[in-house]
Automatic annotation (TrEMBL):
Residues 53-75 are annotated as: Disordered. It holds the Pfam family HTH_Tnp_1. Residues 63-75 have a biased composition (Basic and acidic residues). It comes from Acrocarpospora corrugata. Transmembrane segments: none annotated. This is Transposase. GO terms for biological process: DNA transposition. SUPFAM superfamilies: Homeodomain-like. The lineage of its organism: Bacteria, Bacillati, Actinomycetota, Actinomycetes, Streptosporangiales. GO terms for molecular function: DNA binding; transposase activity.
Length: 75
């Protein structure tokens, strides 16, 4: 039997990736919490890193935290 494909919003994917990258929980735990397959979430994280040059969200290239104003103005 074929599985039904779910279309997740960009906002949902971005928030899921942020939960993995900003937190200390493994992908499998976040995926289980959100009801997403862990391979799917791994793919989203990999794609995010590829699109953003491997820079973690909320961190400047010098390793410092971005200000709230910088984060809000980017989107």
């Amino acid at each position: 039997m074929a599985r039904r494909r779910v279309a997740y919003s960009r906002e949902f994917k971005d928030e899921a990736v942020r939960m993995v990258l900003d937190g200390d929980r493994p992908v499998t735990h976040v995926a289980r919490e959100l009801g997403v397959h862990d391979t799917t979430l791994h793919n989203w994280v990999r794609a995010w890193r590829r699109e953003h040059g491997g820079v973690e969200p909320g961190v400047n290239s010098d390793g410092g935290e971005k200000s709230v104003r910088e984060l809000e103005s980017c989107c």
